[in-house]
Amino acid sequence: MNGSGWIDLQVNGYYGVDFNSDDLTDRALIDVCQRLGDDGVAAILATVITAPLDAMIRRISRLSQAIDRCPEVAQRLIGIHVEGPFINRTAGFVGAHPPDAVLPATVADAQRLIDAGDGKVRLLTLAPESDAGFATTRWLADQGIVVAAGHSDASLDELRGAIDQGLKLYTHLGNGCPMMMHRHDNIIQRVLRLADSLSISFIADGHHIPLMTLANYLRLVPEENVIIVSDAISAAGLGPGEFQLGDQIVHVEPDGSTWGGDRSHFAGSATTLPRMCEVLESIGIAKPQIERWLRDNPSQLLGRS
User: In the CATH scheme, what is the homologous superfamily, with its name and number, of domain 6-239+268-301?
Assistant: First the structure.
């Protein structure tokens, strides 16, 4: 199954190129944009993950400038997804993000990140419980930026409060949370309770979420609110080995699972969208439905349709 306009809202890197590298070049971005097109991906949000704020600003600005300079990049990189640093720093919830770089959400720091993108930041993921009074969520929504929750242990009331202030998406549900949680009252159950009010993205690589569990989640979320993301890193499409993700080394196993340095958590995905389509078909999802989740729903969330 090859893409016909797929839009991937979460791409940290691809085919040997790390979007969070300080050595990123225009040539590398042009090459990776060609490769994405070859794999059926029409457009992506290049994702910048948690790092010291100045480093994030530098990396966002670097991507923004490349989009301005290179038509081949601008065609494929339709914006930037900032994932962090306003997330939950607790072990498990922080995932592969460096805890020491996590910050409470403030409008001032959010504005620095947004300004660095010169109008190209389209999506920002934060933890609602780290956003006092949901002020940053409201400010971002007022700027026309899609606000997502993720790497979060927000209560049901906090999620509802953030939705009231403009929250539109939950980022990669089932991940960015501890392996062991309360069996009934946990972030996954809370978000599923609000599935009528939020778009929800899932990493459909068969590793981040076991296939049986993914099938259950997809049955519970309204079709119009499901979005599939790759969460791809530089390893995507290259097979097993060691790869860079920002300031850390990630291990890709022969089965395609992608682990952080201490192997306690996943760190992005090495799986491409064509492979994720195969995974979804293997659990009985019809091709037209997959196309909606990969093209129509993300397009609508970004206001492109």
Answer: Metal-dependent hydrolases (3.20.20.140)
